[in-house]
Amino acid sequence: HAAKQTGEPYRAWSAELDERAGEHARLGAELRAALDAGQFQVVYQPIVRLPERRVTAVEALVRWQHPQRGMVSPAAFIPVAEQNGLIVELGAWILHTACRRMADWRAELGALAPDRVSVNVSARQLARADFPATVAAALATTGLPARCLTIEVTETAVFGGGQALTSLHELRALGVRIALDDFGTGHSSLGLLQTVPVDVLKVDKSFVDNITEAGRHTVIARALIQVSEGLGLTAVAEGVETAEQATALYELGYRLLQGYYFGKPTAEPRFEVDFIHAG
Ligand code: C2E
Ligand code: MG
Ligand code: MG
Ligand code: MG
Q1: Tens digits of residue pLDDT in 134-179
Q2: Which domain of life is it from (predicted)?
Q3: Helices 87-109 and 74-84 meet at what angle, rounded to 10?
Q4: Residue whose CA lies nearest to ligand 1 atom number 20
Q5: Is 139 exposed, middle or buried (0-12, 13-18, 19+ CB in 10 A)?
Q6: I need a surface site. Which of 106, 143, 231, 278 has the fewest CB within 10 A?
């Protein structure tokens, strides 16, 4: 409204929007070609259990190796793929790729393989009635047991109930685990736990960031581990970057941690158990 008074800022804002819309459309068209050209890759980030430091799981994260732009962040292209619908096909490819890789690790590494792979799923995928069948097909064609797969969804994706909630119940019936991603940042986080079938709470990085300062974040992180334990859920702390954060989280009761401190997402993750010297 302030913009209307002067005129100029409004025009600048409008031009910027046009530019962004143009960029969006360009990116959207490129995504289709990129999928056919094999420019997407899946990388894996360890989720570590303390105190053993065992890599119990890996999270699959998509990457776009663009021939001109270099590595494009999923934060930039996932929203575009959601909007133009390509996320359904791209998401199915990610799911198959991650399940195949996890099945290969199990065959090659036996007991040294992680227990499960975690795959992110968008609201648009979850809202489709055929999504559970897509998951079942990925498991069937790769031979991966359902218990070795976790589906990560955000609170926002399941907030509306409806088909998304039905999909989650069907996934659960297959034996797949459900994780609520970025927990605590969406709508009605705690309220959702009353109705949504969920196994894992991924406590958002924003609560981990200042965990060593004994402020509000610490109080919330402590409350979330208590809620998690009380409901029989598994808590994972996201975005752990320092040893101090890991120690503070461990003292609060967190046993599953993920973050750059333990390992960045990579195409060739390592699973060797790095034993802590017991004295
Ligand atoms: P997310 O699922 O919450 O994934 C965690 C993000 O945090 C990843 O970013 C990861 O690289 C980053 N991260 C992990 N540890 C640390 C840390 O210690 N410090 C910092 N600063 N960052 C850390 P990434 O890979 O860029 O993905 C961003 C988001 O894009 C994901 O958030 C997820 O919402 C979405 N995304 C990524 N891959 C997929 C996918 O295959 N399908 C869908 N639907 N969404 C995806
Ligand atoms: Mg995730
Ligand atoms: Mg997350
Ligand atoms: Mg996140």
Answers
A1: 999 999 999 999 999 999 999 988 888 899 999 999 999 999 999 9
A2: Bacteria
A3: 130
A4: 239
A5: buried
A6: 278
CA of 237 to the centre of ligand 3 (A): 9
Distance CA 223, CA 123 (A): 27
Give the amino acid at 159.
Answer: F
pTM: 0.92
Read off the pLDDT of residues 90-101 as tens digits, 9 standing for 90 and up.
999 999 999 999
